[in-house]
């Protein structure tokens, strides 16, 4: 197992370098961040040249990348254009998004698996069909629609919650945004669990367990669920990364100042250090989440051994 | 079976660590008795007066600073504020006298040094201030701000301090209305602490205005409270303002509806239809000093050629401004008939209808003019815009549609979106844009000069068209050396008439400022920069 982890960690290095270079290249090739600083006004050439020099933008792209990465490894992610260190932005943004992701994952796992188990066990019955229909609707409604609608209903119409989240973003204010963020994944988890349960319910080991006379609840929890959850765990694991990076829409709607907000601002203002820095961290999150998922396999299924 | 327990434990452990790392938020709420809760956007740059060129940072500066002059939010007139007098006998050498008694909120008096040091800081190229070109009229600017290389001086030779309350300014050219530009935020004075503890000042700027900043969480919220020591003529009618950063103006609007916010100064376009019903009259929609145009790449032979003025005028006449402003903008734009803005007023140089026939919708005439001029270059044109903000796509498509209808050719004009504003601006600055493109101009100060000289004077600082016309330049020069403002205005308007013939940029419409507010506050108005006049807002006592 130790060897396996080390091998995986080593494999991450080329993936990390490749993906960061791609991001760096794309962000910096997109346009002139210095021109954007001046708004609709033509940039003053002398000031623009000064800013370019300070930001190392007067070097070729390859040299810029090497310079940037050497800075990153020294713990310096550069400075956003408003004068704040990117690490300071990360310090305020990542905890917020992590909280939001956590809320979403809990929703997705608890409700998704529950619905999936219920509909999987009642295959073809009314419950199954209605859950199927419900997930279909949820999957087909884009996040910004469900976000604005739920925000209006809960925030303005029924006045149950604040439509926007305060800067501190405590967990209780994140429940509605978390639900919105989780909705689509929740539907997928439901479908995945349902299929898996429905398939395994007919497996030999389940029949054996029932034949042994074990109580139904125990059969479902200990035997059926454990084996059926493997694809679901994979999905949820990779979803952590996706939710953290993909919360841009949800964070905008609820005015949450997390990773999505910083990325959106960064892209809009062509604030390259912010965008590259945040995405670099997200790449690491993705890689780690994937590794964790693979390790969880071994725990879930003793047949899988890593060497 | 054992395995499942292990997994559960592992999952619990991971969750536990995450929860511990993340902690639980808490923190101060916003608002309070007498406090206005207003929407805000994250300022793009650090909050230095000479480095703030957008409205969100400008809002704060206008609350915490007062300058030599101030523009009256109602009439647009320029009034002396800290300046006791600004006099000149030759429109080039000015003497500035300050009123006594002005102080920064840290107790330091506002002196001639406060201004001269601030201006020298703003102009010095190594300070990288975005608004440095505003000081370019002052003599000695070229030494502190050379086009390339190192500055040969640290202070502009045109600025001389006579005594604590007097300084003189020598300009590098005649500029009669120069004193009227001094209400712009780039010209605000700065306290000593700005220079001695710069990073500390940026965290919590100190100014001389009616408000002072009590707390500032970057990117989130800024609390401003009335400063007791302020004795300027514009008294504050509330106890303070909390500015809350919103990324999405829809969310701000929703918060206003839900009663969590008092003032939103950017109503989302999609809500304009409902705004009367939602806010019941607590909605402001009035012209601001912003004009939207379509600029031609005059540096490109195709568009800048000798007979192309007919084509450019024809395109202008093919645009049905009235229909587009009504249908797409719900009358939050007014069709433009000159190159300035109604906020200038007739005295300031706004002249409705100056553009004449060239800005009047006339499809038949448009078609024949375009044909006389040799038709669209290559038979087609595109209008460039940035797709990342605003509702540019809608109106560009509508403008193209209008042109296509006039020409009877469904594919003559097409919108050409560019992904980001940064890339859009890069193409324009690098002159690689070879087709007309959208452009907007927000005035810096309510002067007709600001709508013409930077944009259309040869090598003007924002002359994106790279338009160059000797007669136009001559008239602008003459206007700047006139001794009387009314004469200057006439010269500028004559210069504008050249634009009506040459049409380097098509005036489309004057943009309005919009704002919605809650029933908690009253006496809300927007100034000519479409920024709320915060100090006038009264808060209803609970």
Task: Assign an overall shape of chain A.
Answer: globular
Helix content of chain B: 25-40%
| pLDDT averaged residue by residue of chain B | 90
SSE-based structural type of chain B:
alpha+beta
> Strand portion of chain B, in percent?
15-25%
What order do the SSEs of chain A take from the amino end to the carboxyl end, as H and E? Answer: HHHHHHHHHHHHH
Determine the most extensive contact between two protein chains: A-B, 69 and 77 residues
Strand fraction of chain A:
under 5%
Mind summarizing the main beta sheet of chain B? Answer: 5 strands, antiparallel
Can you describe this structure?
The complex is a heterodimer of chains A (about 300) and B (about 550). By secondary structure, chain A is mainly alpha-helical. Chain A is built from 13 helices and no strands. The mean pLDDT of chain A is about 85. Chain B is of the alpha+beta class and about 550 residues long. Chain B contains 18 helices and 19 strands. In chain B, strand 8 and strand 9 form a beta hairpin. Chain B starts with a helix and ends with a strand. The N terminus of chain B is likely disordered. Chains A and B meet through helix 2, helix 3, helix 5, helix 7 and helix 11 of A and helix 1, helix 7, helix 15 and strand 16 of B.
């Amino acid at each position: 197992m130790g060897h396996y982890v080390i091998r995986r960690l080593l494999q991450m290095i080329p993936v990390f370098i490749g993906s960061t270079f791609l991001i760096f290249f794309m962000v910096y090739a997109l346009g002139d961040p210095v021109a954007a600083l001046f708004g609709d006004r033509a940039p003053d050439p002398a000031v623009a040249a000064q800013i370019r020099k300070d930001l190392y933008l007067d070097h070729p792209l390859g040299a810029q990348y090497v310079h940037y990465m050497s800075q990153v490894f020294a713990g310096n992610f550069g400075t956003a254009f408003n004068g704040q260190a990117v690490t300071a932005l990360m310090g305020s943004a990542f905890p917020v998004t992590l909280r939001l992701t956590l809320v979403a994952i809990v929703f997705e796992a608890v409700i998704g698996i529950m619905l999936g188990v219920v509909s999987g066990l009642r295959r073809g019955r009314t419950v199954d069909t209605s859950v199927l229909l419900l997930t279909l609707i949820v999957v087909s409604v884009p996040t910004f629609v469900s976000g604005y609608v739920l925000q209006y209903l809960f925030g303005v119409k029924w006045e149950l919650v604040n439509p926007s989240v305060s800067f501190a973003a405590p967990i209780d204010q994140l429940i509605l945004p978390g639900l919105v963020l989780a909705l689509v994944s929740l539907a997928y988890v439901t479908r995945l669990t349902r299929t898996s349960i429905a398939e395994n319910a007919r497996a030999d080991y389940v029949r054996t367990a029932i034949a042994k006379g074990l109580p139904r609840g125990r059969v479902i929890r200990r035997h059926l669920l454990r084996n059926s959850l493997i694809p679901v765990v994979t999905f949820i694991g990779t979803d952590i990364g996706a939710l953290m990076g993909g919360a841009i829409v949800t964070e905008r709607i609820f005015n949450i100042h997390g990773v999505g907000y910083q990325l959106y601002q960064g892209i809009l203002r062509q604030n390259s250090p912010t965008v590259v820095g945040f995405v670099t961290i997200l790449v690491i999150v993705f890689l780690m989440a994937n590794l964790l998922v693979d390790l969880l396999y071994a725990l879930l299924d003793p047949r899988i051994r890593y060497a | 079976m054992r395995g499942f327990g292990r997994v559960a434990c592992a999952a619990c452990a991971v969750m536990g660590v995450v929860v511990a790392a993340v902690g639980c938020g808490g923190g101060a709420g916003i608002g309070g008795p007498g406090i206005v809760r207003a929407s805000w956007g994250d300022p793009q740059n650090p909050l230095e007066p000479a480095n703030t060129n957008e409205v969100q940072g400008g809002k704060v500066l206008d609350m915490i600073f007062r300058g030599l002059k101030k523009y009256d939010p109602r009439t647009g007139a320029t009034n002396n504020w800290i300046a006791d007098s600004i006099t000149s006998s030759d429109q080039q050498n000015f003497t500035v006298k300050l009123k006594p008694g002005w102080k920064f909120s840290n107790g330091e008096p506002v002196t001639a040094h406060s201004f001269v040091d601030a201006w020298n800081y703003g102009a010095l190229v190594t300070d990288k201030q975005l608004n440095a070109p505003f000081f370019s009229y002052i003599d000695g600017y070229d030494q502190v701000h050379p086009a390339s290389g190192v500055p040969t001086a640290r202070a502009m030779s045109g600025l001389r301090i006579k005594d604590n309350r007097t300084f003189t300014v020598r300009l590098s050219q005649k500029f009669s209305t120069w004193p009227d530009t001094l209400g712009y935020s780039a010209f605000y004075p700065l306290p000593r602490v700005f220079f001695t503890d710069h990073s500390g000042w940026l965290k919590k700027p100190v100014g001389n205005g009616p408000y002072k900043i009590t707390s500032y969480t970057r990117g989130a919220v800024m609390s401003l409270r009335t400063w007791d020591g302020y004795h300027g003529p514009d008294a504050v009618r509330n106890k303070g303002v909390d500015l809350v950063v919103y990324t999405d103006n829809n969310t701000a609007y929703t918060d206003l509806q839900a009663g969590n916010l008092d003032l939103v100064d950017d109503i989302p376009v999609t809500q304009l239809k409902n705004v009367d019903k939602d806010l019941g009259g607590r909605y402001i929609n009035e012209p601001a000093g912003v004009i939207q145009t379509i600029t031609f790449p005059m540096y490109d032979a195709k568009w800048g050629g000798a007979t192309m003025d007919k084509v450019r005028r024809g395109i202008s006449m093919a645009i049905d401004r009235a229909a587009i402003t009504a249908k797409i903008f719900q009358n939050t734009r007014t069709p433009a008939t000159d190159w300035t803005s109604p906020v200038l007023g007739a005295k300031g140089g706004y002249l409705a209808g100056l553009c004449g026939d060239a800005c009047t919708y006339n499809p038949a005439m448009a078609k024949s003019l375009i044909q006389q001029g040799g038709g669209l270059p290559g038979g087609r044109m595109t209008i460039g815009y940035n797709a990342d903000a605003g509702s540019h796509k809608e109106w560009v498509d509508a403008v193209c549609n209008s042109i296509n209808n006039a020409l009877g050719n469904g594919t003559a004009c097409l919108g050409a979106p560019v992904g980001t504003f940064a890339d859009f601006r890069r193409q324009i600055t690098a002159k690689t844009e070879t087709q007309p493109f959208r452009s907007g101009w927000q005035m810096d100060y309510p002067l007709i000069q600001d709508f013409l000289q930077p944009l259309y004077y040869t090598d003007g600082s924002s002359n994106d068209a790279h338009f160059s016309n000797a007669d136009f330049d001559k008239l602008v020069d003459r206007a700047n050396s006139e001794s009387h403002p009314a004469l200057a205005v006439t010269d500028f308007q004559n210069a504008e008439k050249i634009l009506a013939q040459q049409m380097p940029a098509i005036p489309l419409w004057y943009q309005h400022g919009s704002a919605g507010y809650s029933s908690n506050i009253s006496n809300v108005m927007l100034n000519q920069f479409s920024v709320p006049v915060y100090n006038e807002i009264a808060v209803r006592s609970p």
